[in-house]
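Q&A log
Question type: sequence-to-structure
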Amino acid sequence: MDLIENNSQKVIKKEKKRSNFIPFLIASILFHVLLFFLISPLFISSLSEQAKQKEKPKLIEITDLPVPKEKETQPPKETKRYAERSHQTPVEKTKDEFTKKGSVRSLPQPRQQSKKVAKRVEEKRKEEASKKSPQVASLPKKIEKEIPPPKEKPEEDKLANITKEQLFNAPSSQVFEEGPKEFQGSRDVKQKEDTVDLNTIEFKYFSYFAKLKQKIEQVWNYPESSRLRGEQGELFLVFTIKSDGYLEDVKLIEPSGYNRLDEEAIRAIRVASPFPPFPKQWEGLEKLNVNATFRYQISYGWNIR
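Response status: OK
Response body:
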């Protein structure tokens, strides 16, 4: 029984403690809530201020220092060239009105007066010459010239004055013997062969020779072995072209002094042939001898002329 009572008393004490603890707990909760509401605005304001401070840019003050002035240098004096005679009028330095009035007068110009005097003298001379009586010039006497006797007209004039009757009555042999050479028929004057330089500027050959030169230059070379050895020179040759454009002959007239250079020039002409046939305007021309100069130079290359 005692145990039961003791247990019951303990239970009652615990319940009393619990009943006393509950209001204390409620009071503490209310107290903390009040503290929270009082402290929170201050805490929030402090946080907002910190955020604003972070957002605000930092201002840096810059002070302008005075720039040191450079030493003032005087500008260089302008150089003036003086002519033999100065064309500038001097600056007036007088301040007195009386002296200014006296300086207005200008000296007379002797040159203009001398010209006027010369004109007057010439006019007077002309007037005096016109007043004088004109002298009648004597007519020159006729000079009788001896008229030479008329020369005998040549036979051509005689034939021109022959009448139709005399012409038809005369024998045919006499007319042809006494007539001029024009009546005897004209010989064939067409040129069959011609010799021309390759660098000619004659209008007749210019366009054809330009094609000829271009065709040779396409196959003509400076031998590499000759160039390395320093071989250079100039050679002169003549090659003959037939009317159909085919090459007939090549003759070396003046060698360059190096066989390799001479052989290369002759080889280029042979390889470049056949050339274009002669134009129709050259009708009658059967052969054309072309004078050509081949020049080898290490510094300037090679060319034909």
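Response note: The longest strand covers residues 287-297.
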